[in-house]
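This part of the workshop introduces the protein records we will be handling. An example says more than a description, so a record of this kind follows:
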Amino acid sequence: MSTYVIGDLHGCHAEFVSLLEQLSFNPVSDTLWLVGDLINRGPGSLACLQEVQALGSAVRCVLGNHDFHLLVVARGGGKLKRHDTLDDILSAPRREELLDWLQSQPLAVKQGNTLMTHAGVLPSWSADQAVSFSQEVQAALLSERAGDFLTHLFGNQPDCFHDSLEGMDRLRCLVNVFTRMRFIDADSRLDFAAKEGLESAPEGFYPWFQYPRKDALQLLFGHWAALGGHTPEAQVNVEALDTGCVWGGSLTAMNLATGKRTSVPSRQPRH
C-alpha cells in the first residue's frame, strides 16, 4: 500500500499512463495525490480528466489555476486563451459530469503532518487554517451562486490576505494564494508578474517557501515548473513536484512514505 504524489499533468496523458505503469500503481491498494493543473496546454486534457475521475477514491486531488480556468470558461462566462487545449473537454458528451467532479475538489488536502496545495501556503497559515480556507472556497464552488463566484473570480486584487477580508475579495485572494502564488514579500503580499526561476524575483520579494514557519509541516506543491523540482534555501520541509512535463521536462511522482522520486520523460516539444 503506497501513496504517490504526482506533479502537474497539464493534459500529458501518455506520460501519466507511463508513470502509473512504472510505479505498478494499483488503485485497489495504492493512493494518488495530484497537485492540480490536471488539464490544459498538453494534448490529452480530456483523457487526463477521465482517467483521474475513473480512479475514484484512489485519488486525492487539489485544484490548480488551470483547473479553475476551465471552470470559469465553462461555467463563469470566461474566454478560451490562444494556447488552451480544452476544446475536447468542453465538447465531450460527459462534459457536465466531468465539470461537476472537478468543481467538487478542494484546494488543500491534509493528512497527518503533510499538507498538499497547488501553489503553496502562506508562512503564517497553519495546516488547519489552510484546510478551513479551502473549505470556504469549496463551499462557494458548491453553492447555488457558484456561477456568479466563477464569473468574478479572476483578478489580482486584493494581493495580500488578512482575515478581515470579506465576500468576493476574500475568496479571490484565497484562490490566488492556493493556486497562483510564487513570490511574496515580508508582509505576504503576492507578486503575479514573475513566473520564471528564482532569479526573476522582484526586489523585496522571495519564494514563499524561503520564509520560516512556526510548525514542522511537510508541504507538497506543484505549479512552478521553472524550479525543476528543487526548492533552494527552503526554510521548511517542502517538496516541489512540477518538473515541467508539458514543457518537455518530465512527469514526477514521489513516494510519500520514502521520499523516493520516479520520473518519466516528456513526449512534448522542449520549451
Remarks:
- The chain has one domain: 2-265.
- The two ends are 36 Å apart (CA to CA).
